[in-house]
Amino acid sequence: xxxxxxxxxxxxWGTGDFLGGTATRRESVFTVAxxxxxxxxxxxTLVALPAGGSPTAxxxxxxxxxxxxxxxxxxxxxxxxxxxxxxxxxxxTGVVAAALPLLWGLAGGERLGGVALTGIATGLVAIVAISxxxxxxxxxxxxxxxxxxxxxxxxxxxxxxxxxxxxxVLGRTSADSGMWPLxxxxxxxxxxxxxxxxxxxxxxLPRTTGLTIAAAGLFDSGANALYLLATRHGSVTVAALLAxxxxxxxxxxxxxxxxxxxxxxxxxxxxxxxxxVILISLG
Length: 283
Known about the structure:
By secondary structure, this protein is mainly alpha-helical. The protein is 76% helix and 0% strand. It has one domain (2-282). α1 (2-23) crosses α3 (57-83) and α4 (86-107) crosses α6. The chain is globular, with a radius of gyration of 18 Å. 57% of the residues are buried. Residues 134-143 have low confidence and may be disordered.
C-alpha cells in the first residue's frame, strides 16, 4: 500500500509542478507559490476535518518546519521551471530530494533488503538519466536570455534540499496526527508569503492563469496527503525515493504540451524508473 501511495504522490506532484511551472511563465513566481499554497491549505483542511486525528504540539511544529522547507523548495523550483527547461530543472531537483531522505534513513540505522537497495540505486540512476540535457543549444544555456547551466543547477540543487527536508520532517510526525501536520505546513507557508508578496509588489490573486494555478494547488496538496499516508504504511526512505520520481510526470507533460525534446537517455531513464519500482516492490 505504501508503494502505491508514494507512486500516486509522484504522479500528483509531477503534474502539479508542471502546471505551476507553466503558470510562472505568465505570473510572478511568488503569486503562483502563494496561491497554490492557499488553495492547498483550504483543500487539506477540508480533508483533515473528517479524517480526524490527535496531533501533538510536536507534530504541528514539525508540520510548520516542513512547510517552510517545502515553501523554499517550491519557490525555487517554480523559478527554475519558468526560466530553464522543465526537462532538466525538475529531475535535478528530484535527485537531491531523493538522496537526502535516503542518507538520513541509512544514518539512522534503517535497514533494507538487497533487492530494495538495488531498486533504490536504480531509481537514483533513473532520475539522473531523466535529467540529461536533451539539447545543449536549447533553453537554459544563457544564449537566449535564460540563465546559464550552472545557475539552473544551483537553483535545482537548493530546491531539492528544501524538498528533501520536507520529506524527512513529515516522515517523523505521528500516525495519530492525521492530516493536521500538513494543515500546519500550509498555514505557516501562507503566512510567510504575505510579507513576501507585499515586498515584491505581487498579490495572491493571479491575473490570467487562475485555473492553472488552482489545479496546481490541488495536485500539489493532494500529493502531500498521499506522501504522508505512504510514510505511515512503509519505509520513509522508500516512500521518499518513489515520490521523488515525480519528474517523470513533469517530463512527459512538458514533452506532450510544450514539445520539449526528450533524448534517448531520458527515455532510458523512464524505463529505469519503472524497473526501480518493480525492484522496490519485490524487496
